[in-house]
Amino acid sequence: xxxxxxxxxxxxxxxxxxxxxxxxxxxxxxxxxxxxxxxxxxxxxxxxxxxxxxxxxxxxxxxxxxxxxxxxxxxxxxxxxxxxxxxxxxxxxxxxxxxxxxxxxxxxxxxxxxxxxxxxxxxxxxxxxxxxxxxxxxxxxxxxxxxxxxxxxxxxxxxxxxxxxxxxxxxxxxxxxxxxxxxxxxxxxxxxxxxxxxxxxxxxxxxxxxxxxxxxxxxxxxxxxxxxxxxxxxxxxxxxxxxxxxxxxxxxxxxxxxxxxxxxxxxxxxxxxxxxxxxxxxxxxxxxxxxxxxxxxxxxxxxxxxxxxxxxxxxxxxxx
Amino acid sequence: xxxxxxxxxxxxxxxxxxxxxxxxxxxxxxxxxxxxxxxxxxxxxxxxxxxxxxxxxxxxxxxxxxxxxxxxxxxxxxxxxxxxxxxxxxxxxxxxxxxxxxxxxxxxxxxxxxxxxxxxxxxxxxxxxxxxxxxxxxxxxxxxxxxxxxxxxxxxxxxxxxxxxxxxxxxxxxxxxxxxxxxxxxxxxxxxxxxxxxxxxxxxxxxxxxxxxxxxxxxxxxxxxxxxxxxxxxxxxxxxxxxxxxxxxxxxxxxxxxxxxxxxxxxxxxxxxxxxxxxxxxxxxxxxxxxxxxxxxxxxxxxxxxxxxxxxxxx
Lengths: 320, 315
Fold this sequence. Notes:
The complex is a heterodimer of chains A (320) and B (315).
Chain A: H1 9-27, H2 34-53, H3 57-64, H4 72-79, E1 80-85, E2 98-105, E3 108-115, H5 121-126, H6 134-150, E4 154-160, H7 167-171, H8 174-187, E5 192-201, H9 202-209, E6 213-217, E7 221-223, H10 227-235, H11 241-248, H12 252-257, E8 263-265, H13 276-294, H14 302-312
Parallel strand pairs in A: 3-4, 4-5, 5-6, 5-7, 6-8
Antiparallel strand pairs in A: 1-2, 2-3
Chain B: H1 3-19, E1 26-28, E2 35-37, H2 38-43, H3 59-66, E3 72-74, H4 93-104, E4 110-117, E5 120-127, H5 138-154, E6 158-164, H6 172-176, H7 178-191, E7 196-205, E8 218-221, E9 227-228, H8 232-239, H9 250-255, E10 261-262, H10 265-279
Parallel strand pairs in B: 5-6, 6-7, 7-8, 7-9, 8-10
Antiparallel strand pairs in B: 1-2, 3-4, 4-5
Helix pairs in contact in B: 5-7
């Protein structure tokens, strides 16, 4: 069952019609509808190309949040072997919004950490929609520390609406946990690579994405605030999210121009959710390439390179 | 247009307006409603003499009261690219900036200075909540980096007074990038073995709390300051229940182990000197009237930080 976004409504109608025709033909063998159905398919393909060829920033946000988009778990299952999840922050609890553990990426032992949003109501609740609590960040800190001690590269997969705004999360030091995770990212003497696979929501994303290389999927977004949040503060109207999304420059393409994103990974036509396998393969290739780039840095230079990269960000602005 | 409107009336007006009481002589405490005379309020560091409520204080006023004899040298901050995203909401970002500059008389939301406090040389940085909510953008990031570099250069501790609603949305992702950038600055201090003390003031929220404002060797807060990542309204909307009294206030954070101390602004100077001198392994402070510092500190050579932000690559 395909889940259509609001702007895909005309597409849904055409694809629905083609589906209906084929269903009718199945029940009535004398009908010859193949030519008509094929024409509809062709029309749908053209429309998909048009729609996704020029997605507005707000539509990209919608695609980035698409419920059928491949999530952290899917990437780990397909790209890594021997994944061994490790749990807990050793202080308070385990946070299912953050997955992480040891794994092999193309035979190389690594630590992989990511936000998991879940794929149905039950798992979404378990993973708290990918919104981490302090325990999640502290678990990530613990895993990064371990990676550092044993010389394992760290790969993070970012997909979060943001850190969880809850009472307990605040009481247990949400801001401190994020600050320390960002700090840890800047301290570890091993390669740190990050891929934004869906939503890069504010501080909750920075805590994992302060990396030597940051890649973004073509229709993923990364922003200081959600377009809805920005609209309600600056426009005093949450419905102005389209304008806010435009102004925030949160697309992978704009962030590449700003030097925040190092690499844009192309998505299949119609977005990652229309061809999960191809998307995951493309992300795998990007990780391979970025790991290769790390060979150019001398092993003692990962920290210095990372710091320099972030100190230089923003020195040019968009016009450059 | 005649002699009366052009000459007589302005003269009369000027005589009367001179006699009028200036509007800002008295301030009403927004906690207890007491009317406070401006000079007393300044002497009392903008703390209500009646109820002890801590009001906003500008970085300049704070530094005047903090540094010995009110003498300090401003540290130059490398100018970032103006309006990097060409951001516009209902107003253009440059227009909002100009309005904030006019209203505050300041250039941006952070002031960095070097000087002596109780004869203890320090570098201090203070965030200005009256300037666009103290929001953290490229400039604030550059200011913290400049402050850390100056502290390292002079071998002094850094004291930072935070006050901000969070990141500056008008700089989009570049404001978010100040979280890692300022964290690098704090790491410079760590590596140089220099203390970094954060004084959290009302309010300190959002991305500011989730970076440099929570990474101090010692975390002090002014009484009743709101300190949080997500604001109380956002949380109430999410969990749909009323939050406890005093939630996310300094005292609440102290109880939950997130702060070292909550200190009244009027005792802060003394406390900072005491702590800093111990951390710096200096002899105990000498209190009382001392002659003013002999020479103001020579302004730093900021060329060395040119690679962190280029002011000459304007779009």
